[in-house]
Amino acid sequence: MAERPAHFLLAYLLRARPLRAHLLRIACACLSSSLAQAVTAQSSTELRYYEVRPVDGDELRVALNRASPVREGGQIFHGRTDWSAQSDYRWWQEADGRCRVTESRVNLSIVMTLPRLAADAPDAMRARFDSYLARLREHEEGHVRIARETAFAIASRIRSLPEAKSCEALEAAAENARAALMDEARQRERRYDRDTGYGASQGARLD
Fold this sequence. Notes:
Low-confidence stretches: 1-36
Helix content: 25-40%
Distance between the termini: 65 Å
Largest sheet: 5 strands, mixed
Strand order of the largest sheet: 1-6-7-3-2
Strand content: 25-35%
Number of strands: 7
Mean pLDDT: 83
Oligomer: single chain
Shape: elongated
């Protein structure tokens, strides 16, 4: 009989880009359930800023579009949230080979990319930028919520897996559970962007 660790990288790293970083670490609480002590999800959030430096006569939208590194499918976006999750779990193997999960943990890494207006920008532009940034940040926080909820769900689902006839079968079941939840997260993020117009309905718009 032996208890062994299993380590899997949940490969959902969205559109990462090396930018100047400011680190903000956030520890998430455990799931509140009868399995809480054996199910843990923790996260760290890194804020990355790109500088927006308007030139004479620039409108805010023009300055943002020129500075933004977030470009996909021929479109320019002003913010982005990337995330990846690493799952670690332990199992207990009986003498006859039967195997069950005893502890499940997910470590979530989040990177949020946002604009920062140059210090010498005109005051009138700064007021408008600050308002826009608050709404843009609100939209990106929606992606963060999806990431955290998915991390909790993965940790819980793996911990709740039924006993398997072998540890190999248990690993396969854990991977299938992980993959299904990651697919669901991708669909949720696409719906969220579609339903909010990439934040426009939340006020992240420059008309």
